[in-house]
């Protein structure tokens, strides 16, 4: 078998659908696991995902669908995880076969609660997957723009850089330019944090702060991200690279951003529950905010913007007062 072998996408959501489109630009055929059999039935009837990115048409001859996760894993060499981090455990709990001899690509931008483990750490500790057999997809990527074939620069990180290069080849096409890195933990952590900062950005937007203020907020957020990532995963990195700063910017500024949209609802006065119900997609930063807070009990990094988001979401602290304190005492 030549690496990466048979590829299976895990997840029926927006990002899974965009990744399937990317993979099918390179692969003749992919497997695709979705949790709900009725979603697969509707997909087969219409030729597109009935629930997400339904404007992307697929050639059904080139896809084998699975709702049985064990069979999907047994029939694959490389698995691309694209389910929201809070649901990863519930998916994998149904698995009756080993992941240890598979290559796993995590396209998840979140942390696994309540263990507060990065996805790669979780897979290593609970499923015996070796770090050499795991890669992650980072960088500024909105699925909606992949659907429109807008030029996108993801980063593929893996401890084994040759494998990262091979995966990048699978991603590369007319509208995707993948680069490679070995900073797996740093890029995963940055992705968790950018979700939290996008919620902060959304909250401020909802409270009617303007672009001048947003620019200062995001400047402070990148400094926080650098402090946190450098302490939790200390290797040399350039925080201004697109896998870190680029991902923060796209999430804080794009109208496609789930986390920013969620934050904007909070800023406008929605309760957390109401905002979650209203959104049809998952804002993982809500979960990431609590995970970052708990991880930081050990490291004690100065992260006032992330702390503010925690108090607003989890302690019911009024957003307008929290942002007022931030703007008067912290931001510069
Ligand atoms: N959407 C993007 O542009 C994008 C880009 C890069 C990375 N990501 C990452 O990809 C991952 C998936 O995000 P998404 O945007 O595709 O999410 P989404 O909100 O579009 O999809 C939700 C997915 O979660 C599943 N789901 C919903 N409730 C569930 C439950 N109770 N149990 C199990 N599964 C449930 C749905 O079936 C669906 O597959 C996330 O980690 C996200 O950070 C997304
Ligand atoms: O911007 P969000 O919150 O939808 O997150 C999507 C991706 O992670 C952006 O790179």
Automatic annotation (TrEMBL):
Any one GO BP annotation for this protein: glycerol-3-phosphate biosynthetic process
Positions with a binding annotation for NAD(+): 87, 143, 258
Residues annotated to bind NADPH: 14-15, 35-36, 52, 109, 143, 258, 282, 284
EC numbers for this chain: 1.1.1.94
Cellular component annotations (GO), alphabetically ordered: cytosol
Localization of this protein: Cytoplasm
Record carries keyword Oxidoreductase: yes
Binding site for substrate: 109, 258-259
UniProt pathway annotation: Membrane lipid metabolism; glycerophospholipid metabolism
SUPFAM superfamilies: 6-phosphogluconate dehydrogenase C-terminal domain-like, NAD(P)-binding Rossmann-fold domains
Annotated Glycerol-3-phosphate dehydrogenase NAD-dependent C-terminal domain residues: 183-319
Broad class of where this protein is predominantly found: cytoplasm
An example molecular function term from Gene Ontology annotations: glycerol-3-phosphate dehydrogenase (NAD+) activity
Entry keywords, A to Z: Cytoplasm, Lipid biosynthesis, Lipid metabolism, NAD, NADP, Nucleotide-binding, Oxidoreductase, Phospholipid biosynthesis, Phospholipid metabolism
Described purpose of this protein according to its UniProt entry: Catalyzes the reduction of the glycolytic intermediate dihydroxyacetone phosphate (DHAP) to sn-glycerol 3-phosphate (G3P), the key precursor for phospholipid synthesis.
Family membership noted in the UniProt record: Belongs to the NAD-dependent glycerol-3-phosphate dehydrogenase family.
Name by which UniProt lists this protein: Glycerol-3-phosphate dehydrogenase [NAD(P)+]
